[in-house]
Amino acid sequence: MVRFWITYLQLVELFVNSLVHLLYGFYIFSSAVAGDLSQALNEYFQKPKLNNVEVKDGKLVKGVEEKETNANDLPPIVLVHGIFGFGKGRLGGLSYFGGAEKKDERVLVPDLGSLTSIYDRARELFYYLKGGQVDYGEEHSKVCGHSQFGRIYEQGHYTEWDEDHPIHFVGHSAGAQVVRVLQQMLADKAFKGYENTSENWVLSITALSGAFNGTTRAYLDGMQPEDGRTLKPICLLQLCRIGVIIYDWLDIPWLKNYYNFGFDHYNMSWKKMGLWGLVECLLGNAGPFASGDWILPDLTIQGSLRTNYHLHTFPNTYYFSYATKRTRKIMGITVPSSILKIHPLLFIRVLQMSQWHHPPDVSPPYKGYRDEDWLDNDGALNTISMTHPRLPIEHPSHLVEKDADCQPLQPGIWYYKIVEGDHILFIINRERAGLEFDLIYDSIFQRCRKHAFRKKLPTLPNEIHH
C-alpha cells in the first residue's frame, strides 16, 4: 500500500511538472509569434524613417553606420545561451538575454543547439565565429552515429579571430561550460585546417549560473544516479525525449525556423529516416538519446567530472562567475528563500533540490561527496556547482563580496560572486529582475571593456620570435 501511494505521488509530481514546463514553453513561443506579427504590422502601416542622417558632399550618410565602424575596433563580447536557449534570430525578436545585448556596441549572440551536447555546441560556436562548415570531427561523429559535417556559415561573424584579436565570452548555465570546452579545443588545436589556435584566443570568460560541476536536478528530472548517462523509464526527460524526436521527425519548416533543438546532423527528418527510423529512435536504438550525445548526460555530476578531467584554467585568461541561490537555512534545514521571487517554472525544483539525498544503495559520484554541500540551489543548478570548476580538481578561485576584492583583476583565477536569485535571473524577462539585472550586465560589460586588450609581456633581449 505504501509503495502504491509513493508511485501515485510520483506520477502526480510528473504530471504537474510536465504541465508547468509545457505551459511555459507555449507562453514563450506564443509571445515570440505575437511580437513578430506586431512588428510586421507596424512595418506595413508605418513608413521607415531615417534616423541620425547627415548630408556630406551631397550624399546621405547615416551616423549609425559610423558608430558601428568604431564598434568594430572593439573585441566582441559573445553571449552563449544555455539549455533550451536560443540565439539572435530564433524565436523572432525575443531576446534570450532580456535585451542585455543592446548594452554594448559590439555583442554577438550565436544560435547553437539547445539540446545538443557540450562538445557539439563548442564545435558549432567555433565555426559560427570563423565561418565555414561545422566539422564535428570524424572520430566523434562515427562513435555517436551522426554526420561529420553540419551547418554552413558562408560568412563568419568574427573571421579575424586569433591571438591578436581575442574574444570575451559570457555564458549562461551550460553555455559557460561550452566556452570552457571551446577554449580547451583551441589550446589542443582540435580544428582541422586551423593549426595556429591557442587558449589565448579567449580574453575572458564570464559565467552566469554556470554549469561547471553538474547538478542534482538532472537526477530529479530522470537521469539515473547510478551512471549519469541513462534515463529512468518514466520521467520528465522521457517525455522531453519523445517530444523532441517527434518534433524533429515531422520537420515542419516554419516551426523549425522559430525553434530548433539542434539535431539536424542526426538526420531525424521523416524525409531521411522514414517511419522505421522514427520507431528506432523512439525505442532508443538510434539518435542522440541512444548515443548519449546530448546535453543532459553532460549536466550530471558524473558527466561534468568526465568533461572537467580534460579542461584547464589558463594563466592569461580572465575568469568571473556569478553563482545564484534561492535557498536559506531555517533551524538547520535548507528551504526556498522566497515564494513570490522564484519563477513558477523553478519553484518545485528549488524545494526538491534543497531536500536532495543521493540514493544510499548507489555509489556516490565522487570521493568525499556529501549531500549537505549540494542543497543550496537556484532551481536548476546547485550553488556549489556554479562558483568555479571544483571536480575532479579544484581550480584557483576567490570569493568576491565587494568590488575591492577583485581590484586589480588577475588572470588565471576564478573570481565569483554569490547572487540571490533563481536560474532565470539573467535571461528572458528583464523587467522581472529589475535594477539588479541592469547593474550586473553593466558591470560585466564594463569589466570586459576595462580588459579589452591583453597586456603583452615585454620581450627579453635573448628572446627571438619566429
UniProtKB/TrEMBL annotation:
Source domain of life: Eukaryota
Cell compartments where the protein resides: Secreted
Molecular function as annotated in GO: hydrolase activity
Keywords: Hydrolase, Lipid metabolism, Membrane, Secreted, Signal, Transmembrane, Transmembrane helix
InterPro entries tied to this protein: AB_hydrolase_fold, Lip-like_C
Domain Lipase-like C-terminal residue range list: 76-188
Transmembrane segments: 7-29
Swiss-Prot/TrEMBL GO biological process terms: lipid metabolic process
Main location: secreted
One of the record's GO cellular component terms: extracellular region
Protein name: Lipase-like C-terminal domain-containing protein
Source organism (scientific name): Lupinus angustifolius
